[in-house]
Sequence to fold (434 residues):
Amino acid sequence: MSALGVASLLIPGCASSSSSAALGTPPVGFLTLPTDPPFPASVASAEQAAMVALSMVDAALAQSTFAVGGLIVETNTGRVIQAMHNNVIRKLPDEPNQVFTWDPTAHGERQLVSWYYANASKLSLPPPEELTIVTSLDPCAQCAGSIMTAGFKAGVIAYDDVAGVNYNLQANFLSLPERFRPLASETFGYYAIDPGRRHSGATQPIYSNMAVLAPTAKACLTQFEKSRTVVEQVRTTTNLTPAEMTDPATLSADSPVKTALTQRFPTAFTLRLSDYRRPDAALKQLLLDQRDASPGAKNAVALIDPFGNVVAAAPDTFDVSPINTGFMNVVEGYSQARFELAANPSTKQAGASSLTNPKYGTFVWLHAPSARDTTTIKDLGIYDLTIEGAIPVLNPSNFQYYEAPVSGTEEELLAMIQTMSTWTDPADPQRVAS
Ligand SMILES: [Zn+2]
Fold:
């Protein structure tokens, strides 16, 4: 079976029909695996919801990925709609003792949001405002931005004092620009722990007046801490430096590497910059065309590899979901292409030697992200997750844009990055030099 065949077996709804051929197939962005634990049809207390989240945490740890999990619950009935865990790292289908990064954005909560939009109409699901995402760990910037954009409520079990939206544990959301704090205060609630802490934050999430038992809450945290060590030991995404790499442009058009990218991004390899950190007018036109071909899109983003090749380019696909920004589409598609190549022994070497971490390339945005939009909280989080470690200080930066934000100013964006720097590694967006 080809790696592609494996992926389409495992990704429900992979044959999504909502995107036009000109834009490729945006990744659906979530996984349910046959090994995922079953979940009950409903939960009647915060503790019962926490136990479902903990079962997902345990499954994530067994998969050697970050041990975080959660569930979507109908707030006024307790009906459990879906449960999921982190899938950043996955076992290779044909080599279960080996793992590889599937998608750095595949956190439990963000996948639940994506799953919701892929299924809401088919399953006649209630609107997000009537649903709570109960999560084992305080959401990171990506997940907090996704939840706020969609409009879910979030009930949180364990704190994350490093990378959580409530990192200072005060539930005052100084982690976010002022304009978003009222929304955060109505979105994120922190369950009481018995014995332990009092409830804080939003009271709208389900069972906010109930406590989670201390052993359950503690297990959510200790399993996550354990998983960080496991991930460090097993993580095997191969990130070669540019000097160690092969230029994928030298591969034949039907090579697995080019095919994996052009299936997702039809404009991959149609353009090459003479300097990979100096985006030109032709690339801007490519991004304008991408944006204009996608209904409702405001922006488009390309990833340029260290040789100057356009290896990924995508517009916002808000027809798929309100969180499907061009940047998320690029990161997901590129990462999942790398996984697909790694999952097939016959393409593993070619993938590893010609596709590396985006930090060695350049992300080029048509417009700078808007500081007035909750999707930017998410995208700044995704940038942090994608770079995997310290963000290199570079000039020109690996994060560039041609035009000012669609709404708001570049200064507002820089201020937003500064505000969020306490819990996300700061990006360094720079306007493309003319
Ligand atoms: Zn997250």
Q: What stands out?
A: The radius of gyration is 21 Å. The first helix runs from residue 3 to 10. The CA atoms of residues 306 and 375 lie 27 Å apart.
